[in-house]
Amino acid sequence: MQKARTNRWTYAAAAAAVLLFLAFLTWLYVFLQPATWHYYTDDISTRFLAKDVKPQLVLWEKAAPLRGDFHAPANDIQEPAVSPDGTKMVLTRGLSSGNADLFMARWDGTSWGMSEPLRALNSKFNECSPAFSHDGQYLFFSTDRPGGMGGYDVWVSHWDGAEFAWPQPLGRMVNSPFDETAPQASADGKKVYFSSNRPKTLLMKDDDALSLKELRKKYEGADYDIYAADRGSKNMAVERAMSILYSLRQGALSDPAVMEKLGGSKDTEAAVGRALAWLAQNQEADGSWSMLKSKGAAGHDVAATSCALLA
After folding, report:
1. I need a labelling partner for 186 at 20 to 30 A (CA). Which of 2, 59, 130, 279 fits?
2. pLDDT digits (tens, 9 = 90+) for 208-261
3. What pLDDT is recorded for position 234?
């Protein structure tokens, strides 16, 4: 009897100990709240408890080539940029051949369509490094075409509802006589980031007398750094207008090879020079041109002046 009584007390003590331990674990769970130990975050602004969000894949799957013409031989496709709404992809093709162009493919809801050239943006020079603005309405890219400050410059094109329209350089507030590449707009649209090999110090006074080719040769070998430019609408508008009016011909005239690509030569430039000289010699004191004095019909001096100023 004594042994049976002892066993009952032993079992009761063991059960009590187990209950106390389970109670302690319950209290510990409630106190520490393990459900708050796991969360989803982008380490910037998003942070949600794992219990409050739907489970989702967090690992990248194995990469696979896209359907369509994205991996066809000899296309030399690089630098894909996808619009914020996911419906457009702009990419660079032909960079290794020395005449890179920009192409765009559209997402139809299930797959990407064939890429088509952006004809308003492409030229006989290199267009590369596409990047969308935060709202998808502008496309930034880098090009060595005439019209910029020299070398590679950052240009921008506006989406007109059907296509990206004729582009414009960002001007001297962003571009320089050196190379500006790989533009990227900030999330709020107030800055543009880019890479440039411009000198880190101010140019010397003697540099003003150097040609573009001489200036680039003097500072050849400078490494690339990241720059940021704030968006200033007034300055940008002025710079774009100046580039469109004057920089294209200045860039073409500075390099015979560029002139030849644009269909010009020394003879054509000499003809242009003679024509401009004739216009200057025949301009009236009030700034107009007379049709009558050039054996034309009277009463059309406004049209004559407009054509002369256009030239």
Report:
1. 59
2. 666 667 777 777 767 888 999 887 644 555 545 555 544 555 555 666 777 777
3. 47
Same domain assignment for residues 299 and 174: no
Residues 254 and 273 in one domain: no
pTM value surpassing 0.70: no
Based on the domain organization, do 119 and 154 belong to the same domain?
yes
> Which two three-digit tokens encode residue 61?
């799957």
pLDDT of res. 272: 79
pLDDT at 183: 95
Which residues span the domain enclosing 161?
Answer: 77-264
Name 47's Cβ contacts closer than 8 Å, sequence gap at least 6.
39, 40, 41
Are residues 152 and 182 both part of a single domain? yes
Same domain for 277 and 306?
Answer: yes
- Burial label, 136 (beta-carbon count in 10 A; 0-12, 13-18, 19+): middle
d(Cα 34, Cα 114) in Å, to the nearest integer? 50
Q: Which residues of the chain are modeled with pLDDT < 70? A: 1-8, 31-37, 42-45, 55-60, 71-75, 202-205, 207-212, 221, 232-255
Same domain, 292 and 245: no
Place of tokens 């457009």: 88
